[in-house]
Amino acid sequence: MQRVHIVVELDPPREPDLNRYLDAARRLQAAGVDAITIADNALAQSRVAALAASFLLKERLDMPVIVHISARDRNLLAQQSTIFGLYAQGVRDLLIVSGDSMKVGDHPTGKGVFETDSLGLMERVKRLRAGVDFFDRPLKEPVHLRFGGALNLRKQHDVMLKRLMKKYECGAEYFFSQPVYDEESMNNIATIRDNETFPTSLPVYLGLMPIISYDNARFIQTIPGVHLSQSVVESFQSLTGDDARQFGVQHACTLAKTAYSRYGFRHFYFVTPYLRASLTAALTVCLRTYAEEHSREKHRPIIDQTHDKTVLINHERRPG
């Protein structure tokens, strides 16, 4: 039985005080998450550098981290410098993305660097594995980094699958989906994962992010590539405070259980909204408890009295 693997995104704060950030990370660690992912100025919002946040998590908590690297904010010189800095402090996993548009963030009139895109950056990191740096200089020894890429549903299935296969050819070893809020989106991701051309060895982490309020739900509707139905948004309209947040966790947990039992997902990527780690910690506990109960139920022996033998229920979809 494949164990559920849960990574949780915890974005650094917008100001340099990291005490609350570390407290949130401790709560996630206590809940049993496998790793914390750290975004690179997600939604084009300026935050404490992911490099600094990852150093603190490893030094203070000895927590496994996956650091996002965006093609948007740095040229190749700065990208290699950042990656070498992460590697020197023990980081071995990256999520390489192109980056959100500057227009949606703090500096909408600014210009992204985009000296290359996520594919170009992946190709260069793949070369680091072979002992060659971004500028064709040989390294004394290979840089052993694992990296993954993003999976979003803004494109048709065939276009998205082709894009993912290009990332795989560039060295990607896993994929993180954008948050989903309905079974249709979940099914779309499972359809791509289960395509006969998609490598069975590639984990697909299903993204889930609890909704915390009606206004938050309306904001999520504006995020490119994320589908949130109006009926779900309206279900939060009469809820406020803790009631809204608890309902958001329940909604996300229901989706997680469906993904686990109906679509065979075993890799999950939970996104923490606004440093509210109690929500993604609760979601982690909810899914782990369900997975354990589901596993016990599935493997409970059933006596076949006709043939006087014990059989085990054991029929699963391909895990994600």
Based on CA atoms alone, the radius of gyration comes out at: 20 Å
Instruction: Give the topology string: H per helix, E per strand.
Output: EHEHEHEHEHEHEHHHEHEE
**What is the count of helical runs?**
10
Largest sheet: 8 strands, parallel, barrel
Major sheet: arrangement of strands = 1-2-3-4-5-6-7-8
- What spatial form do the alpha-carbon principal axes imply? globular
CATH class: Alpha Beta
CATH fold category name:
TIM Barrel
**CATH architecture label name:** Alpha-Beta Barrel
DSSP, total strands: 10
Which percent band covers the strand fraction?
15-25%
Number of domains: 1
Structural class: alpha/beta
Question: What's the helical proportion of residues?
Answer: 40-55%
Mean model confidence by pLDDT = 92
**Weakly predicted, low-confidence segments:** 305-317
Cofactor: FAD
Pathway: One-carbon metabolism; tetrahydrofolate interconversion
GO biological process, one term: tetrahydrofolate interconversion
GO molecular function: FAD binding; methylenetetrahydrofolate reductase (NADH) activity
